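INPUT
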Amino acid sequence: MAGSVDLSKGLPSHPEKSTLEGKNKFLGFWIFLGGETIMFATFFGTFLGLREGTAGGPSAEELFSMPLVFIMTMLLLTSSLTSVLAMFSMKKNNFKNMLVLMIVTVLLGVGFLGFEIYEFVEYVHHGLGYTTSAFASSFYTLVGLHGAHVLFGLCWITTLIIRYSRSGITLTNAPKFYVASLYWHFIDVVWVFIFTVVYLMGIGGA
Amino acid sequence: MSDDLSKPFTKSSMSEEEIMKINKERKIQVTSFAFMIFLTILAFIAVATETIEVGFAIPFILLLAVVQFFLQMYYFMHLKDKDHGWPNAFIISGVVLSTPALIALILLLGVTKY
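OUTPUT
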């Protein structure tokens, strides 16, 4: 049941939360995000504990390049903005606009992931294999975990775009798009800490 | 009923007032995005220009990250909205639970370096 919402008037002002299913998705997703917070915190803790254990291999200061990290950060932050704007288009029942903004989000995310893969390949060439040192494995695990989240988010949003490319905004797909955008923001939040704790602190030599 | 759920709408039911409210909120979010970009650039500058002492730059960029965390959570992910009591509870418990784990990991692993 659509509950107390009068559907004859048009799209409800909060299409993502006007059905019970939408409400449940919303609540369940925040439980998931609470758990993700804990998981990422433990990976950050491991990295911070081990980051000085280079075991004779390359150190953070030698490897990290600030321009590359800056470009990646800008790509991911901008994609966060486009997915926020997409949600506004969704609430206004502007389907085409939402779709375009979601596609832009995906493209920015793909750009980010491309830079990350390039970065990892480059580091391996510089002698930082996964098992080189404690620093190497904790770095690859933390940043790689975030990269895996980005990849997952990209597949998720792409699937949604393809699946609903012609259906318009309905009460079924509005919660799905909304939850995907929440996920994307969360990835962005994690990146804020990665670029601060991993890269800037590594380059700064603290 | 299932037809209703998979049926697109021709118009939005939002009133003029609601549209104005949503436009205002969008403006706030774009402003907070600009502010986030500013904070990011500030963090990069703090590390890039080596005029600032490391002992000061590191806590400074950590503070910027925390500010960004709140901007992202409360503005972009709508945690500031009134109907977000439970999401707030989940995220706060996530942060509260992970803080001791984070500190313990840093201390324990930091002691046994290899």
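end of record. Chain A touches chain B through 69 residues (CB under 8 Å).
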